[in-house]
Amino acid sequence: MRIVIAEDDLLLREGLTLLLQAESLDVVAATGTPDEFLTAIEAYKPDVAIVDVRMPPTHTDEGIVAAVEARRRQPGLAVLVLSAYVEQAFATELLAQGSSRLGYLLKERVGRVQEFLDALHRVANGGTAVDPEVVAQLLTRTRPATPLERLTPREREVLALMAEGLGNSAIAERLFVTENAVHKNIRSIFAKLDLAPTDRADRRVAAVLRYLEDARRRI
Q1: CA dihedral in degrees (55, 61, 64, 68; nearest 10)?
Q2: Residue ranges of the HTH luxR-type domain (predicted)?
């Protein structure tokens, strides 16, 4: 397996090189800038590129841009992206496309040598490797918001006191605000919970029931 590394951190770049060479893998180039990386891709035609997301000069998405360009120049190139933390935009795109020969790992995974090597070989063999932490964070961030999550912290405080059975004046006293402020918060709560005035339901009771049900699910 012929590998090109693109990583601007010298220690990590050298560490990766030594790790891969110890596994009898052929690191044909270890580069520190996007331009050097693309030059190496053209020169060595590697099987796999290991690319840091954030590279010079701006340390934003230069690594991703370079990886996309490398795959354009060499179709079928396997790319394993390394990132210090979850870069949601690229990770979401990667998962949505279900692209083969692509991987996304957090850099801390490199220290777990066997997991890192397994991911590298999986990508090289045409598969996809996505860090478990990336998956967990994306699931958390993309989970559809419940109506209760629309509430502001103050509105949640008011709703919690409603659940304790307090009336508007008692809530106002507890929170050191006016009754008018409490009334506005309650109207906003009803609106955000989609509780329209009806003859069949008490909106205050309905809001409290939703709050208690949400609390029960979180236990």
Answers
A1: -120
A2: 144-215
Per-residue pLDDT reduced to its tens digit, 146-178 = 778 888 889 999 999 998 788 899 999 999 999
* Mean of pLDDT values over 15-40: 96
Q: Number of C-alpha atoms within 13 angstroms, CB side, residue 20?
A: 25
For the chain, list the domains and their CATH numbers.
2-142 (3.40.50.2300), 147-218 (1.10.10.10)
Instruction: Spell out the residues 6+ positions from residue 36 whose beta carbon is closer than 8 angstroms to its own.
Output: 6, 29
Contact by Cβ (8 Å): 80, 105: yes
Cα 139 to Cα 189: distance, rounded to the nearest angstrom: 27
Measured between alpha carbons, how far is 113 from 210 in angstroms, rounded to an integer? Answer: 47
| pTM across the whole model | 0.62
Nearest residue to 214 (alpha-carbon basis) of 138, 142, 147, 139: 147
What separation, in Å, do the N-terminal and C-terminal C-alpha atoms of the chain show? 49
Query: Per-residue b/e over 45-69, b at no fewer than 16 CB within 10 Å?
Result: ebbbbbbbbbbeeeeebbbbebbee
**Residue 145, φ and ψ in degrees, nearest 5:** -70, 135
Q: Give the per-residue pLDDT at 198.
A: 64
- Lowest mean pLDDT segment, chosen from 42-56, 72-86, 99-113: 99-113
